[in-house]
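Methods — Computational structure assignment.
A single polypeptide chain was analysed. Its primary sequence is given first, followed by the predicted tertiary structure written as structure tokens.
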Amino acid sequence: MGSGSGKLKVWSSREGSLVVFDAATTQVRALKKIMAAAVRRDGGKVRPVLGPCEVRIWTSVLAEKAGAHDVDNIAKAVLDALGGVFYRDDRQVVRLVSERFEGSANRIAVRIRPLDGPVAPVALDEALLAE
């Protein structure tokens, strides 16, 4: 699909927000701009997270577009697009999971959850292989 508009649905509660974006583009550069415009237009009643938060991104792509999205590029576009509405700045995101799978539509779902505090430190050594 080329560039165009996207359809945004937002659910919000004290536990966080869920954003579902029916993407009208498979181009990541255009996605950020389109999603940001939709978020600013339709996400205005959401209370932004003020402290650290977790973001989980699920990207569904049509079979013929399965190689078109890199999870890291999608994550960057989504984090930038949601900033200023769902959280003040994407530096507040201290936990991020981004997954891509083949689905029945080009769709992105994002869950934003506030965390109670900072993420606990982890020893960055070979002990991580045991998990």
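Note: The CA atoms of residues 4 and 123 lie 45 Å apart.
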